[in-house]
Structure formats: C-alpha cells, structure tokens
Amino acid sequence: MEIQGTLWSPERNGASMQTRPDRPSFFRSSTRTGSFGAFGQAETAAAPIERTGAERVAFLRRVYGWMFAGMIATVFGVAISVKAGIAEGLLTQGFLPSILMFVAWIGLAYVVQRVRHVPTWNVVAFAAYGFFTGIVISSMCYVAILLAELKGLHEGTFLLQAGGLTLVAFAGLTAYAFFSKRDFSFLRSFLVVGSFVLLGALLIGFFVESTGYHLAISSAGILLMLGFTLYDTQRVLRTYPDGEHVAGAMTLFLDFVMLFVYVLRFVLLLAGGSRD
C-alpha cells in the first residue's frame, strides 16, 4: 500500500502450512504490505466445513456485513484525516510518524483478533481498526485529491475511479469463488512467491525513478491481490467455522483495502502523479 517513500508497500507473504480457519490471513503471517509485518504463526490444515444453503447464506451475511461496516469506518477515517490535516502531516513529517502509526495499526489488528468473540468489544475494536486503517491510507488519498484538483477535476475523481474498479473486481472474484467448484488452494505457493518477489521490487523501487517501473510494480501488485482475493474468499467460505465471521471479515477487508491501494497507485501514475 503505498506512496513510495511514505507509508505503503502492500505485499503479503505466507507460512509453509495451510491456513488456520480461526485467524484472519493478516495474522497467519501475511505481510500484505512490505511494511505490514509478519506474525509468522504456524498454520494447520483446515478441512472444508459442510453447511446447508441457509447456513452458508447466514455466514456470508455476517462476514460481509462486518466487512462493509469496516469499509464505512475506513471512509470516515480517510475523510477526517484529510479534513484535519493529518494526511498532509504524514506526507511532510518524514518516516517516524508513519512507522509509529504502522506499529499502532498492527497492535490494533492484534486487539481485534483477541476480542473477536467478545460481544460489544469486538464491534468497537473492528470499527476502530477500520477507522485507523483510513488514517493509514489517508496520505495517499490526499495525494489523489491534490492531483485531481491540479488537473481541474473534481477532487474525488481518482478516488472514485480506483474505488469503482476495486469494487467491480472484488465483487466479480467473490461471485466466482462462491459459485466455482474449482479448488484454488493451488494458488497459495504462487502467491507466497509473488509476495516476496514484489516486496523485493518495491525495495528496489526506492532507488528507481522510472514511472514505467512503478507502473509495472503496481500492475503486479493488483494481480497479486486479485489472486489473494480469490484464494481468501474461497478459504473463508469453505474452512472458517460459523463463529469466525469476524476473522473472515478481517481477511477480506484487508484484501479489499490492499487491492484498492494498488489500483489507486496505478491510477495516479497513469494520471501523471509522481511516484511519491
């Protein structure tokens, strides 16, 4: 997730075993961003869970209801951060505030995982996490607003473009994972390797000024997150127990956010924004 040199490098890596159904993929050792640390937890194989049609629909309603609520909180986080000048400050105050915010973001994710079964507190923690995620990505959104205004467009033009593309892609892959009888677990090894390769490319990118290079990185990041979306959606549908709807929502929420950030970065680069 990134404006180069500030907050983001959305990559993920994976552990060597299958994912535990009781933890969101963020906790399973993913570095969905080159900066979003790895928890490195061991994973155990998860057998598919048998559900009736009604049970499946009820589970999905809870998962996507929580995810949607998290996205609403994220939008509020972005809006308040931009209006309050926090986003601008993150762009101008160097790495330390971004590093501290990143550490706090990981800590809050851990809190969500710990209280996900505790009524009321799980709602508060997930909402706070979504809101704080909005602050984390707000400086990139602020750049999108400035670039749109510079080009004489509505300030939300690039954000709406990226959001719309992300929503269409995410919805399409969700539907495909829901109805497809294919097993997408084979994607895991490709996604893990791709995460490490992309992380290396992002690190190199700090020293490369080429717009073409950064467009290639953004394109690779989009493809990687599309793969994770397909893989994680099927995994949540098939292996997460009914009581783990919060974990499922966290997994898919992160997939959506990372995909949005890469798409937005690609849109900004095409629009003539600098890599920073």
Question: Can you tell me about this structure?
Answer:
The radius of gyration is 18 Å and the shape is globular. Helix 2 (86-92) crosses helix 4. It has one domain. The protein is an all-alpha fold and 276 residues long. The chain contains eight helices and no strands.
Please name the defining characteristics of this protein.
276 residues, mainly alpha, 8 helices, 67% helix, disordered N terminus
What is the topology?
Layout: H1 53-83, H2 86-92, H3 95-115, H4 121-150, H5 157-179, H6 187-205, H7 211-239, H8 245-270
Helix pairs in contact: 1-4, 1-8, 2-4, 3-4, 4-8, 5-7, 5-8, 6-7, 7-8
Summarize this entry quickly.
With 276 residues, this protein is mostly helical. It has 8 helices and no strands.
- Beta-strand content: under 5%
User: Tell me, what's the shape?
Assistant: globular
Share of helical residues: 55-70%
Main beta-sheet annotation: none
Radius of gyration: 18 Å
Number of helices: 8
Determine the mean pLDDT. 81
Number of structural units classed as domains: 1
Oligomer: single chain
Query: How many strands?
Result: 0
| Helix/strand order, N-terminal first | HHHHHHHH
Category by helix and strand content: mainly alpha
Low-confidence stretches: 1-45
Distance between the termini: 12 Å
